[in-house]
Design goal:
The protein is α+β, with helices and mostly antiparallel strands. The chain has two domains: 33 residues; 104 residues, Barwin-like endoglucanases. It contains two helices and eight strands. Strands 3-7-4-6-5-8 form a six-stranded mixed barrel. A hairpin with a 3-residue loop joins strand 5 and strand 6.
């Protein structure tokens, strides 16, 4: 014969089991939803909602007088380029065309390439372009139709 206290204990256990299953299902669903609505980059999660994206052409440039300001080691925002860090990929900086100048000082996510900090501006003739700062020892490249995300 089951007494009232044993009945309460059994019904409580069953209720807890059912609620745990519901909680697991809700948590699992929420996790799936989060995966679909975020960009995962370098162990950080960025929500996709309210992010602006741009389709650009991506090229590269070197910190030389012919390709930059003055001696080539000063960016538009006044930062000095450390070529040793640049060679080791310890800094990931880029320049943007004037139509994207509002990105100055921000960190952007570039499709297939990762995150870059915007420190420089390109010549006025360019539109919808980004220019990645690379060490002179590294190979230049160009990629069309890349998406950049402004967090």
């Amino acid at each position: 014969m089951i007494t009232q206290s044993k009945y309460d204990l059994i019904s409580g256990f069953l209720l807890l089991t059912v609620l745990s299953g519901i909680c697991f299902a809700v948590c699992f669903t929420q996790e799936k939803k989060i995966e679909q609505e975020t960009i995962i980059n370098n162990d950080s999660v960025t929500p996709v909602k309210n992010l602006k994206t741009y389709t650009v052409t991506c090229t590269t440039y070197n910190p030389t007088p012919a390709q930059g300001w003055g001696n080539g080691l000063i960016t538009f925002d006044g930062n000095t380029i450390d070529t040793d860090k640049l060679e080791r990929h310890a800094i990931r900086w880029c320049a943007v065309s004037h139509d994207l100048a509002h990105l100055m000082g921000k960190t952007i996510i570039i499709q297939e390439l990762g995150t870059y900090e915007v420190h420089d501006l390109m010549h006025k003739r360019h539109r919808k372009r980004i220019d990645l700062l690379i060490h002179p020892k590294h190979k230049h490249f160009k990629k069309d139709n890349l998406t950049i995300v402004e967090p």
